[in-house]
Amino acid sequence: MSIFRQLGQSPTKVDARRFNLSGYERMPGFIQRFLNHMAAKHYSEQTAQRYLYDFLDFFRWVETASASEVDPSSVEIESFVEFDHAGAEAYATYLALELDNAASVINRKLSSMQSLFHFLIETGVTGTNPFQTVERPKRAKRNPVYLTESEWLDFSTLVRSNVGMSDREAAWYERNRERDFLIIQLLGLSGIRVSELTGLDWSDIDLTTRSMRVIGKGDKERIVPLAAPLVALLTEWSSERGPVFKNDKGERLSVRTVQHMLKRHIDRLKPYLSFLVHKQVTPHKLRHTFASRLAMAGVDVLTIQQLLGHESVATTQVYAHIGDEKKIQAITGLL
């Protein structure tokens, strides 16, 4: 066989570690190679980190089930691939009955293990995937949690104020008041993901065309129009170059910082906005708010899909239900 024929016989090895993952060194070599493979396939670092945590949970179960001390980093691949379908079913049962995990969490953890074995099959390490036919719990379909138009307006008004703050907190907030408000407005009026928001550079913003370039999952690019309020806010906030949102050190703001910032505002406003008590508002819930408001305004699902950057229209279909409810209410209200 010529060297050119051999080139396609096995996947290209990716030795460079591109992700800075917590717990990476605790993983056995074959899982480290899988995580490196994810980097090469342009998965997000957040996704890879979730996979790693799922693997740690699996090894904790192995330790409990076997009543033996298990050091994941020392697990040999020859031993690992002896894991069979019965073991996979036992793990699924443990997640459901012992840990009482939600269906979504169980499915995610099983999918992480299935993806790992799929990688081992592709690289010729094993020929079977014990998680392939494990019965999965069915997820109950739920409408997305979102803020109504009046709730969004009330929240937007109070989040910019000093309501619920001490004098000292208000003085500190003054430094980041406009930044925090712009972040929240961008999440609620553009529907971009929090990771997309923190990745924005000023070169992505075009105030002339009132649009911004967003790099989504899998490095896929899309253009998102800017609502008039965002154009005004970005014009006031604009800079010449670099990240749109920076911390006090001048570094790009992290996803976690944005999440914590929003939670602080939610916690201080709960006594004043009762809906915040039962609606757990997160950056992703603001994305739902954007999409839900579009659906209620009669925007078609395909357009919402493109604006959100969903891979499949099936993911966006949940918002169609919200639009249908609005239509039913309109017809019911006719005299």
What's this model, at a glance?
InterPro entries: CB, DNA_brk_join_enz, Integrase-like_cat_sf, Integrase_catalytic, Integrase_recombinase_N, Integrase_SAM-like_N, Tyrosine_recombinase_XerCD. This protein is mainly alpha-helical and 335 residues long.
Alpha-beta content class? mainly alpha
Q: Which series of helices and strands comes N to C?
A: HHHHHHHHHHEEEHHHHHHH
Mean pLDDT: 87
What is the rounded distance between the termini? 80 Å
The helix count comes to: 17
Question: C-alpha Rg, in Å?
Answer: 24 Å
CATH fourth-tier homologous superfamily of the largest domain = Intergrase catalytic core
| Helix fraction by DSSP (H/I, runs of at least 4) | 40-55%
Gross morphology: elongated
Q: Do you know the CATH topology of the largest domain? A: hpI Integrase, Chain A
| Biggest beta sheet summary | 3 strands, antiparallel
Count of the domains: 2
Strand content: under 5%
Strand order of the largest sheet: 1-2-3
Poorly predicted tracts of residues: 12-16
